[in-house]
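seq as requested:
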Amino acid sequence: MKKEAKKILKLFKKIINSQQFLEEHRISKNCFIRKRKLPFPILILFMLNLVKKSLQKELTEFFSSFSNEKNITNSAFCQSRMNLNYTAFIELNDLMIESFYQNSEYKTWEDFRLLAIDGSRLQLPISKEIVEFFGYAKNNHATITSMAQASCCFDLLNKKLLNSEINHYETSEYDLALEHLDKINPLNDLLIYDRGYSGIWFMFYNLLKQKDFVVRMQKNSIPEVRNFFISNEKSKTIEIKKLSIKSDEHLKRLKIDFSPFKIRLIKVVLENGEIEVLATSLINEKKYPNKVFKDLYFLRWGIETEFDHLKNHLMIEDFTGLSSLSVLQDFYSTQLATNLQRVIIKEAEEELQKEKKNTKYNYKVNKNLATGFMKDRLIEIIFTKNNKEQERKYDKLKDLFKINPTPIRKGRSFPRVYHKTRKKFYIKKKRAI
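struct tokens:
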């Protein structure tokens, strides 16, 4: 077990058992004051254990393994969770991320931490409260589906989910991105955005926050960008002296005064011959030549694969309750679970690199298998008091993570396939195996 894992496990154990943490994250001061079958720390650990099967089966298995209590009923859990504020999982994640950047040598690109922000829609269980809180989508047959708008800020090189947001279905991705930018710790960052974030006002806001950026531009953007698309130029620096009415309205809403600023436009030719234009605050062409931007922008794909991991491996849309609070708890506990998983993955992949140094490909951990192996075992490691025994169990879990690794084949790309959606998970039809 390496230093990062030891620090995080020690910090995690200390925080969830502290009285101050309990007082800050209970719904009211009357919660968790008596000795209960489901105390505050145990409740947090249970919810962190990727609860995806029948709730009663999950409870029975958890308490038979990790508690002296014979059983906790579904009803008792549902009552107890209503006393826990979802902010507990946010703070645990924030402390974990803060510890990583303060105590680890993290990867950078040209001294920048590379971040990406992106959003995605999530399907939610249907209940009156959830529909009122998060909103809904309606199809041509007037069928209602509970939905929410989610957004993540992801460290592309260090594979850390810095923070996540979940809000009403009709909340714009821009508004959630503003939340991310306000919360990002003050490091030297370069943010990589898809064309959904190509508003000129948004670039200006990034600069106000002292954040550099690379943005994929839309063809119907401002005249300077449209002209650059059809020109023979490969790179051009332009000055934004005036905003469109729409961009100006965004800044007025934020009570921000505009001042002229410069951006650099760069042409990138994709493998299929299609031309894309990137806009960046990195004006210096000698320090940041055109040729680096194609591969740099491609790194943004990491946040797409992170959403795939959250949705298809960690099953973030498989919620465990019918209240808005339960949705928030499940969402933020999954964010924390994926970052805990990443700590083990990092160590496992470093060992794989040494073990397979003479093979054709580098290898990465199979995250789907790792998710299955992590269930129960990570909680068991946290419960273990003896340091040597804890380290032995951790190393055993890490060895499981190395089973059936995936070869990294560079240069491959796959077309994005869009499917018609249907309801994915049902509260009352959860599996028992």
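The radius of gyration is 23 Å.
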